[in-house]
Design goal:
CATH architecture: Roll
Helix content: 10-25%
Order of helices and strands: EEEEHEHEEEEHEH
Distance between the termini: 36 Å
Largest sheet: 10 strands, mixed
Structural class: alpha+beta
Radius of gyration: 16 Å
CATH class: Alpha Beta
CATH topology: ph1033 like fold
CATH superfamily: ph1033 like domains
Number of strands: 10
Shape: globular
Length: 183
């Protein structure tokens, strides 16, 4: 990780001309990052998280996503809850990361859709974090809106072909998306 200084300290990894895993310095010297986390509402939606309050974000089977969960995400980070593979797709709420990363138990369960027989319990491949429901948006902020909004041109979720389920969001992008809820 490299350090960049501006009005606030920002830490991130520079890839393809863009800072990812962006974090801002807070008063207590803890760092906060922002994320966009996708889920199909037929499998697990904002209604499910709201009903449970706190739940495990399971089933991520991509090494980039696993690395973000393990290395870049922290307790206290905030995430946009994004409904994918539904009409319309878009941001539907906010959640908070409330646990350290730990092994995804579904990888060891032969009855689970997320079972990974190549992942041994002694050296698990896949990790999860617990998330807490914060609030539901008043309306869905659609992918079409995100793509057409000035300031979000470089947002990872707006890039063509972007299929990762956990993506970093910059503080500026976060604030713009929250503002779109009222538009």
């Amino acid at each position: 990780m490299a350090w960049v200084r501006s009005r606030t300290q920002v830490r991130g990894v520079h890839r393809a001309g863009r800072w990812t895993a962006t974090r801002r310095q807070t008063r207590q010297n803890a760092v906060m990052a922002y994320w966009l986390m996708k889920s199909e509402p037929t499998a697990y939606g904002i209604d499910d998280l709201e009903a449970k309050g706190v739940d495990m974000w399971e089933g991520c089977r991509n090494y980039t996503v696993r690395n973000n969960i393990r290395d870049a995400m922290s307790i206290g980070d905030l995430a946009l809850f994004y409904h994918s593979n539904v009409d319309p797709t878009g941001v539907v709420g906010v959640m908070e990361i409330v646990s350290e990363a730990y092994p995804d138990p579904t990888q060891f369960d032969p009855g689970s859709a997320y079972h990974d027989p190549k992942s041994p319990p002694g050296a698990p491949r896949w990790l999860v974090r617990d998330v807490k429901f914060v609030r539901r948006f008043k309306r869905t902020v659609t992918l079409a809106e995100l793509k057409s909004t000035p300031g979000l041109e470089q947002m990872e979720a707006c890039r063509k072909g972007q299929r990762l389920s956990v993506l970093p969001v910059t503080e500026k992008e976060w604030e713009i998306v929250l503002g779109l809820e009222e538009a």
